[in-house]
Amino acid sequence: MLVSAKEMLEKAKAGKYAVGQFNINNLEWTKAVLLTAQENNSPVILGVSEGAGKYMCGYTTVTNMVKAMISELNITVPVSLHLDHGSYEGAKKAIAAGFSSVMFDGSHYGIEENIEKTKEIIALAFSQGISVEAEVGAIGGEEDGVIGGGEVADPDECKMIADLGVTMLAAGIGNIHGKYPSNWKGLNFDVLAKIQELTGVKPLVLHGGTGIPADMIKKAISLGVSKINVNTECQLTFAAATRKYIEEGKDLEGKGFDPRKLLAPGFEAIKETVKEKMELFGSINKA
Ligand code: 13P
Fold first, then answer.
1. Which of ligand 1's atoms lies nearest the C-alpha of 232?
2. Which active-site residues does the annotation give?
3. Which end of the chain, N or C, is more open, meaning fewer C-beta atoms within 10 Å of its C-beta?
């Protein structure tokens, strides 16, 4: 069964740990994340970008695949299926297709329009028990063709959006999707502390979890972050493991070209990365 992210994130916030959102791209990815969550007794959020949703033949396909996998693999830990950086139309489609959580990313609208559209998505989602993430201050870097400017959010705007009743709030604090440049200034903890002060118990979300050093992750969790998104790191470890398999010529040995064999090292690499992140985030044995 899929659950809203509300309860798992409120528990995480109270318990001072974070639940990982791991983005999925295909069946192997999904299976790797679900099995790792179950093996480590951790709650988990499966993130689906609009691009990944299209790649996987639409949100309904994704919902049905994930639900069937939860049942066939006997997954009993809480799993939330979450639209990542959803547009206004995309969020509505994901809700209709049975996602249990959506992000409406209105950060590129002016604050008034962001508020109006966030309100509408909240009303629609909450009527069906679906959690909603909103964003203030665009997250930097490029993700699935969406390029954000890397802003630092205005804490007062964060409070305005939090007060609409969103389940969790993503605020830009200098975080960037993908690899961080060598001259990156780090996370802005003063702004994070201010946002936490103004928004109280509201679970905060940190995007761009790939390149943030462990000490900064821990500090962010201590300042109220209870959901951390990871995408690029799983892609990098998947690609590296697949490349190694091919470079070693394993695809030419026996039945090494069988996709089930060819994708196996990448699958194991994702499992390892997800486990490392769950350890760092403190979500192990919190299901
Ligand atoms: P990374 O790709 O940097 O891990 O960020 C993922 C993310 O924030 C998804 O919304």
1. 2
2. 84
3. N
DSSP-assigned letter for residue 132: E
Question: 10-residue block means of pLDDT along the chain (287 residues)?
Answer: 97 98 98 98 98 98 98 98 97 98 90 91 98 83 54 90 95 88 88 96 95 95 98 97 98 97 98 98 98
- CA distances 89 to 3, 26, 30, 101, Å, are 22, 23, 24, 15
Q: For the chain, give every domain's residue range.
A: 6-281
**Is the beta carbon of 256 within 6 A of some atom in ligand 1?**
no
What pLDDT sits at residue 150?
Answer: 60
6-281: which CATH number, 3.20.20.450, 3.20.20.70, 3.40.640.10, 3.30.360.10? 3.20.20.70
Ligand 1 centroid to Cα of residue 32, in Å, is 18
Q: Is the CB of 231 under 6 A from ligand 1?
A: yes
pTM reported for the whole predicted model: 0.95
State which amino acid sits at residue 76. Answer: T
In angstroms, what CA-CA distances link 156 with 138, 201, 222? 15, 16, 21
CA angle 57, 47, 267 (to 5 degrees): 80
- Read off the amino acid at residue 281: F
